[in-house]
């Protein structure tokens, strides 16, 4: 018996048998695609989702709770923020790296954990490229050069001159070794030819408390943290380490305005999932958050935090982090920062 099967190309395109065959094959393909999706992705989520925050009490904490509210509304399940601070964010990020890749554990991290730490640590409890899927990031936030009013300087130029006249005695606080606040200080020292003494704390909030108290002289912090203390006269903002002034600190000039365009340091926060999380789950989260980033409360938060409104997703986010890591690797090398245990 001869084979009577013929391909679609053997039939006229408007032949009813051809149309029926194409419809039937299309239905089979669609069903096959659905069946091959992981079961977890088909039912996600059926219980609470956790967002790990490795920086309790700071801007990352606020952002994590905003994301939790948006995902809670979009997913129809509880979304809770789990604060896991310590070791400059390494503890919380390490936990997230080991979490099951099922979409029920997410991570809010920052340039500290995914750009700076890998450059300055001898060993890491996670691999930023292999252990995580980047979902989205906030816009960038420039650092602010703050000083305690007891330091006899009123401008950035005066701070540089004072630091050069007192090498190794001007102290600056950070949220811990290998964090963005630490590397911002090293960048400052490298670009200005000064020598500062680094004083690490467990959190940025603790460092700011000691800056206000006069226990450290300088800090390179975010505008949202600095602005209230500047308004109270507790600290003095000398310059914005970015190309544009920020509304929170309108009187603080940019380093570019002051003739130092290379003295720029920006931070950001981002949402990640453990590597291996099904693409369908990543897509579901992305489809919820993309429009949510245009909501009025999110835009207001960005303005309060001096963030740009651009929020890169997926590969655009990943590429931005890689580019920043490349730039800061040169800073670490030039500054001669010894590897941190």
Give a brief description:
With 341 residues, the protein is α/β, with parallel strands linked by helices.
Kindly state the mean pLDDT as a whole number?
87
Would you list the SSEs in sequence order as H and E? HHEHEHEHEEHEHEHEHEEEHHH
Proportion of residues in β-strands: 15-25%
Spans with pLDDT under 50 lasting ≥5 residues? Answer: 1-13, 28-37
- What global shape is seen? globular
Helix content: 40-55%
Number of helices: 12
Structural class: alpha/beta
Largest sheet: 6 strands, mixed
**Number of E-state strands:** 11
Characterise this structure.
The chain has twelve helices and eleven strands. The protein has helices spanning 16-36, 39-43, 59-75, 90-97, 111-120, 156-165, 180-192, 204-212, 223-231, 279-292, 296-304, 314-335; strands at residues 49-53, 79-83, 105-110, 132-137, 141-147, 171-174, 197-200, 218-221, 236-241, 266-267, 269-274. Helix 3 packs across helix 10 and helix 7 (180-192) packs across helix 12. The longest helix is centred in the C-terminal third of the chain and has 22 residues, at 314-335.
Compile the SSE list and pairings:
Layout: H1 16-36, H2 39-43, E1 49-53, H3 59-75, E2 79-83, H4 90-97, E3 105-110, H5 111-120, E4 132-137, E5 141-147, H6 156-165, E6 171-174, H7 180-192, E7 197-200, H8 204-212, E8 218-221, H9 223-231, E9 236-241, E10 266-267, E11 269-274, H10 279-292, H11 296-304, H12 314-335
Parallel strand pairs: 1-2, 1-3, 6-7, 6-8
Antiparallel strand pairs: 3-11, 4-11, 5-8, 5-9, 5-10
Helix pairs in contact: 3-10, 5-12, 7-12
């Amino acid at each position: 018996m001869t084979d009577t099967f013929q391909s679609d190309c053997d039939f006229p395109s408007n032949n009813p048998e051809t149309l029926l065959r194409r419809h039937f094959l299309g239905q089979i393909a669609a069903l096959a695609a659905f069946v091959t999706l992981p079961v977890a992705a088909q039912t996600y989520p059926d219980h609470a989702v956790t967002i790990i925050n490795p920086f309790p009490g700071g801007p990352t904490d606020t952002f994590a709770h905003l994301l939790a509210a948006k995902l809670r509304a979009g997913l129809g399940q509880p979304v809770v923020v789990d604060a896991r601070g310590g070791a400059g964010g390494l503890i919380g990020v390490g936990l997230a790296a080991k979490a099951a890749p099922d979409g029920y554990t997410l991570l809010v991290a920052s340039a500290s954990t995914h750009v700076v730490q890998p450059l300055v640590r001898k060993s890491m409890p996670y691999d930023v490229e292999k252990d995580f899927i980047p979902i989205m990031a906030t816009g960038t936030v420039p650092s602010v050069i703050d000083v305690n009013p007891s330091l006899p300087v009123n401008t950035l130029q005066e701070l540089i001159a004072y630091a050069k006249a007192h090498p190794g005695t001007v102290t600056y606080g950070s949220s811990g070794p290998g964090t963005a606040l630490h590397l911002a200080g090293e960048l400052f020292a490298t670009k200005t030819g000064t020598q500062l003494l680094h004083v690490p704390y467990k959190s940025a909030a603790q460092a700011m408390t000691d800056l206000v108290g006069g226990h450290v002289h300088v800090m390179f912090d975010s505008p949202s943290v600095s602005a209230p203390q500047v308004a109270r006269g507790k600290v003095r903002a000398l310059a914005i380490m970015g190309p544009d002034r920020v509304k929170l600190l309108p009187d603080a000039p940019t380093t570019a305005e002051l003739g130092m365009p290379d003295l720029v340091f920006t931070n950001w926060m981002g949402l990640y999932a453990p590597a291996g999380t099904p693409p369908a789950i990543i897509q579901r989260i992305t489809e919820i958050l993309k429009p949510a980033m245009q909501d009025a409360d999110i835009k207001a938060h960005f303005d309060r935090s001096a963030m740009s409104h651009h929020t890169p997703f997926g590969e655009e986010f990943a590429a931005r982090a890689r580019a920043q890591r490349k730039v800061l690797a040169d800073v670490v090398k030039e500054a001669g920062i010894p590897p941190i245990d």
